[in-house]
Amino acid sequence: MANKIDTSILLLPIGLIMYALYKALPHDNVVIPDKPDQISKNFNLNEMNVTSTGLPNTIPTDAKAWLVALTQEILQPLRDKIGSITITSGYRSQEVNSRIGGSPYSQHMLGQACDIISPGMSPKDIFLVLYRSNYPIKQCIVYSKNDGNFVHVSIDPRRPAKREFLVNVSGAFSPYNGGSIVL
User: Fold this and answer.
1) CA 113 to CA 12: how far, in whole Å?
2) pLDDT over 90 for what percent of the chain?
3) pTM score, two decimals?
4) How many CB atoms lie within 10 A of CB 148?
5) How many C-beta atoms surround the C-beta of residue 66 within 10 A?
6) 2, 89, 131, 156: most buried by Cβ count inside 10 Å?
7) Strand (E) or helix (H) holding 166
8) Which domains does the chain have, with CATH numbers?
9) Pair 44, 92: CB distance under 8 Å
């Protein structure tokens, strides 16, 4: 009789597996206090699922794993560099994403993206700091004042990261490859 392969590990959510791998890797300058919702020195899970829709927006385990990676690899280093950051949209349940008109393929629903602003910087300046960084960014979009006036940033689960940078003006996306930005 042939040996059977235990496939039960395949049933684990991929985010949980990624989180376990992520936690096994060494991280310099990462401080996680002994608080269950604290995911980095300056960020916690409670600010990652805020919604004004009134709909439930509970973060599933696999999305939490990605939010930890997003925070520790992009958001916390960015905050250390520029100062205060406010998450205007983090994790979104499918219902929340649908209600606000988000993309049906939004990385927000996986916990891999968030929208940010900083009281000390314009979205354009935040975007430029991210562009000049070596963070594992999949996509970064700066939105003009008429389109929300914020920066969308997502982590790339693959390495090397895709690093797609876009400028959104009046709903039109244009690739950014350096130079000046007109919003």
Assistant:
1) 22
2) 69
3) 0.82
4) 15
5) 24
6) 89
7) strand 164-169
8) 26-175 (3.30.1380.10)
9) no
